[in-house]
Design brief:
There is one protein chain. The chain is α+β, with helices and mostly antiparallel strands. The chain has a single domain (32-174), classed as Cyclophilin-like (Cyclophilin, Beta Barrel), CATH 2.40.100. The protein contains 3 helices and 8 strands, in the order H-E-E-H-E-E-E-E-E-H-E. The protein has helices at residues 2-17, 51-62, 150-154, and strands at 31-36, 39-45, 71-75, 79-82, 110-113, 126-129, 142-148, 168-174. An 8-stranded antiparallel sheet has the order 3-4-6-5-7-2-1-8. The longest helix has 16 residues, at 2-17. The radius of gyration is 21 Å and the shape is globular.
């Protein structure tokens, strides 16, 4: 009798100690997929170096804030900028973020937060680097790295703004 009771109690203790496995939610996704007018771009978010920026970008993605927004500034050999609902580089979502600078090196495909002269003015606008961004390291918040689709970014219409700008058709959280 004592042996059976001991086994039952031990079983209950073991069951109580097992943590349930959580399914990954869309918010925990580390990838953002942008369907542009030139093709798909997949960005891996860098939560460890810019947690507040990644969180905010994901909030905006879930709100479909970015859907339909143009690339309003594309400079060949430097970067492509988007995220302004006004389409002229002056607009945003209305919520500035404190800078999260890091020593992550700006390189081909690095995604950074656009801002004004004030380091804590990043909002919804971001840029994707080509090759000429290394001087931005430590001065603009890095929040992502393109893992596929840079050929789409490279083919965006050039200009400030381009005469016929390309756009983000849809932006979604998801898997690579």
């Amino acid at each position: 009798m004592f042996k059976k009771l001991f086994i039952v109690i031990l079983g209950i203790i073991c069951i109580a100690m097992v943590k349930p496995v959580k399914k990954a939610s869309a918010n925990s996704s580390k990838f953002i997929t942008i369907e542009t007018s030139k093709g798909k771009v997949v960005i891996e978010t860098l939560h460890k170096i810019a947690p507040n920026h990644v969180k905010r970008i994901k909030e905006l993605v879930k709100q479909k804030f970015y859907d339909g927004i143009i690339f309003h500034r594309v400079i060949a050999g430097f970067m492509a900028q988007t995220g302004d609902p006004d389409g002229n580089g002056t607009g945003g979502s209305g919520k500035n973020l404190k800078a999260e600078f890091s020593d992550y090196q700006y390189k081909y495909g690095t995604v950074g937060m656009a801002r004004s002269m004030n380091p804590d003015s990043g909002d919804s606008q971001f840029f994707i680097c080509f090759n000429g961004c290394s001087h931005l390291t430590g001065q603009y918040t890095v929040w992502g790295q393109v893992v596929s689709g840079m050929e789409a970014v490279e083919s965006l219409a050039v200009g400030e703004p381009p005469s016929s700008p390309d756009k983000m058709i849809s932006v979604k959280l998801g898997k690579k």
